[in-house]
Amino acid sequence: GRCAPGVVEPIAILAVREVPGVASVGAAPSGIRSLLAFNQSTQGVVVVPEADGTFAVDLTIRVQSGRSLNAIAEQVRTAVSDALLSQIGLEVSRVDINVNGIQFQD
After folding, report:
1. Who contacts 41 (Cβ-Cβ below 8 Å, separation ≥6)?
2. Global confidence as pTM
3. Which one of 13, 72, 90, 103 is CB 3.0 to 4.6 Å from 23, fit for a cystine?
4. 8 A C-beta contact, residue 72 and residue 63
5. DSSP 3-state helix, strand, coil percentages of the chain (rounded to 5)?
6. CA 27/CA 32 separation, integer angstroms
């Protein structure tokens, strides 16, 4: 199914923010953002349509210190896939997670 641009990203961001241990979504602009500038993405989320009709989601997040990165990544993948499928029927083929930093609690 085709999906209006700008619909997918906010849903993904909201899903990610619900995951315990995620400090924030998005990052300072870096090489990858200028590389994907044609993909008007909400900062921190890039959605790429795959040939088979599914979508790949590329996320940049900061995590809270003292948390397991693997556990957070697993939960983020599940949260994003579930949210996109249940809310707009979008099938996610993969979720790539870039951890851009660790936020230390004071």
Report:
1. 9, 33, 47
2. 0.80
3. 103
4. yes
5. 35, 30, 40
6. 11
